[in-house]
């Protein structure tokens, strides 16, 4: 009984503590973009990085987000959020050549570099 209590007091094992440090490093890298960056924005970036050329419709379906929210978040991740308000420049969109109403989302060179930094932390 005493050994069990000591084990719980020590917390996570070494492997899990290392994983948590990596997770914290990922969070800190996103915070360098913006100190109060919403988790949803970070999550959407990772989703796009893992699925280059994903459509906005697919993002909505896979994340459960609303179209307005997903579109606004993509704007934040893009070069321009609004006319005079720059975004992060991590993603860009293009019209699907097979279905003009559909937009596809890709990483910019800056987005690729940022994704590579995230991947390096996780490895």
The overall strand count is 5
Strand content: 15-25%
Q: Per the principal axes of the C-alpha atoms, what is the gross shape? A: elongated
* Radius of gyration of CA atoms, rounded to a whole number: 18 Å
- In N-to-C order, the SSE pattern is HHHEHHEEEEH
Would you give the CATH topology of the domain at 38-117?
Answer: Arc Repressor Mutant, subunit A
GO molecular function, one term: DNA binding
InterPro entries: WH-like_DNA-bd_sf, WH_DNA-bd_sf
Keywords: DNA-binding
Protein name: DNA-binding transcriptional regulator, MarR family
What are the SSEs and their pairings?
Elements: H1 2-10, H2 14-33, H3 39-50, E1 54-55, H4 56-63, H5 67-77, E2 80-82, E3 85-86, E4 91-96, E5 99-107, H6 109-122
Antiparallel strand pairs: 1-5, 2-3, 4-5
Helix pairs in contact: 2-6, 3-5
Could you explain the architecture of this structure?
Keywords: DNA-binding. It comes from Franzmannia pantelleriensis. This is DNA-binding transcriptional regulator, MarR family. With 123 residues, the chain is α+β, with helices and mostly antiparallel strands. The chain has a domain at 38-117: Arc Repressor Mutant, subunit A, CATH 1.10.10. Helix content is 60%, strand content 18%. The chain has helices spanning 2-10, 14-33, 39-50, 56-63, 67-77, 109-122, and strands at 54-55, 80-82, 85-86, 91-96, 99-107. The strands form two sheets. A three-stranded antiparallel β-sheet has the order 1-5-4. Helix 2 (14-33) runs antiparallel to helix 6 (109-122) and helix 3 crosses helix 5 (67-77). The chain is elongated and about 55 Å long. 14% of the residues are buried. The model has no long low-confidence stretch (mean pLDDT 91).
């Amino acid at each position: 009984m005493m050994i069990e209590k000591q084990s719980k007091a020590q917390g996570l094992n070494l492997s899990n503590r290392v994983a948590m440090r990596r997770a914290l490093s990922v969070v800190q890298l996103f915070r360098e973009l913006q100190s109060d960056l919403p988790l949803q924005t970070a999550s959407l970036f990772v989703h796009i990085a893992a699925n280059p050329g994903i459509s906005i419709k697919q993002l909505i379906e896979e994340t459960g987000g609303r179209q307005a929210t997903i579109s606004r978040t993509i704007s934040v991740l893009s070069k321009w959020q609004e006319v005079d308000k720059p975004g992060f420049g991590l993603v860009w969109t293009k019209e699907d050549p097979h279905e003009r109403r559909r937009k596809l989302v890709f990483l910019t060179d800056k987005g690729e570099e940022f994704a590579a930094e995230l991947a390096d932390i996780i490895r």
